[in-house]
Amino acid sequence: MPAPAPTLGGGPVTTLAYLGPEGSFTHQAATGWSSDETTLVPLRTVPEVFAAVASGEASHGVVAIESSVEGYVVPSLDAIVSAPEVVAVDEAFVSITFDAFVLPGSDAPPQQATAHPHGLAQCQGFVDRHGLLPVPASSNAAACRDIQPGQVALGPPLCGELYGLTTWEQGVEDFAGARTRFLLLTRRDAVSPRQDEAPATWRSMLAVTPHLTGPGVLARITAAFGARGVNLSSLITRPVKALEGRYVFILTVDAAPWSGDLHEVLRGLLDAGDSVKTLGVFPSRGELDRTVDIDRVPAGSVRSGSTPADLDRGLLWGDEGREVDRGGEPRAGASRAGEPRGDEALRETRGGEVDAS
Questions:
Q1: What is the CATH class of 7-95+177-192?
Q2: How far apart are CA 114 and CA 23, in angstroms?
Q3: 99-175 and 193-291: same fold?
Q4: How far apart are CA 118 and CA 69, in angstroms?
Q5: 141-150, 277-286, 326-335: least confident range
Q6: Does the keyword Amino-acid biosynthesis apply (predicted)?
């Protein structure tokens, strides 16, 4: 992992809070933002990390925000959405691999697997293969530190030596090459926007909350970005707490709020009556591969060229032979039920021959 440096402001990284204990994947991310003058402070929970940054107890904090296997880390996402004093100023990616550890001298097969919920999910095949009962822990490193007899702990390879454990099996993750994205946090009032930098070098996380919902609301919001040529690379929703059917839209875009195009988008959303909040602005590292291999799409997905039967099965759009427009009439070039189609019609009108001229 490259050693990133905060470029949006927030001052030097003097005290860095992270989800501990030592040896966690978050600890690995934190070391990339630390120097000889940085004090690393392991904390027990994500809310504690946000509280330390908001209060000034820590100059910065580190939290996991997104797994390439399990998606967004909901506690971190909800915390940054709801924290008025905290903003993200950098991001980094850590490669994720899990080893399975047991206590030294353990002879009996383990009955339980303990790890962070995301860790358990990323090693589901291993857990199922050995018939283990999942036991969630506050972090993968905490699972290794606090392992009990009869348990196998799933965590970063360095936890074995760090906590004096025996490696039971290596590389037990379901998907090789997985990565987790981490955010560097600081106080919002410590940030100084770098308006001298080229807009294309930045990525921003935004929270948009429409106050009036109904048909077309999401389309209106996303169209605002497209109309100004601002690339929208991620979209996720979180509920407005205790209000059914009301959502906060969290968007990641390839621009900075001070750039002309995104600035105009944000102004337009405000004028439309939406509430908007910048959750983070950080340099784009150009590390994301924008392509998706066909074997990674959801099973049962269909594409152009799929058979009519597969299209009907995958899309559930009704009779595979039906081709109608929105008014209920056959589309141009489509035949009604029982009528010949295409070359068949030509053959009937021309005695079975088709003029290719």
A1: alpha beta
A2: 15
A3: no
A4: 9
A5: 326-335
A6: yes
Q: Are strands 39-43 and 15-19 parallel, antiparallel or unpaired?
A: parallel
Opening angle at CA 289, ends 180 and 73, nearest 5: 25
pLDDT of residue 81 exceeding 80, the answer is yes
**Rounded-to-integer distance, Cα 303 and Cα 219, Å:** 23
% the chain with pLDDT above 70: 80
pLDDT at site 237: 92
Phi and psi for 282 in degrees, rounded to 5? -150, 155
Which among 86, 22, 91 has a CA at the least distance from the CA of 52?
86
Q: Within 13 Å of residue 146, how many CA atoms lie on the same side as its CB?
A: 15
Q: In what order do the strands lie in the sheet with 151-155?
A: 133-136, 112-115, 151-155, 99-102, 166-169
If you average pLDDT over every residue of the chain, what do you get?
84
* Amino acid present at 297: V
CATH architecture of 193-291: 2-Layer Sandwich (3.30)
Distance CA 140, CA 156 (A): 7
Side-chain half-sphere exposure of 286, counting CA atoms within 13 A: 2
Does CATH place domain 99-175 in 3.40.190.10? Answer: yes
Residues 283 and 199: their CA atoms lie apart, in Å, by 10
Per domain, the residue ranges of the chain are: 7-95+177-192, 99-175, 193-291, 304-352
181 or 200, greater pLDDT: 181
Give per-residue burial for 96-121: e unless 16+ CB within 10 Å, then b: bebbbbbbeebeeebebbbbbebbbb
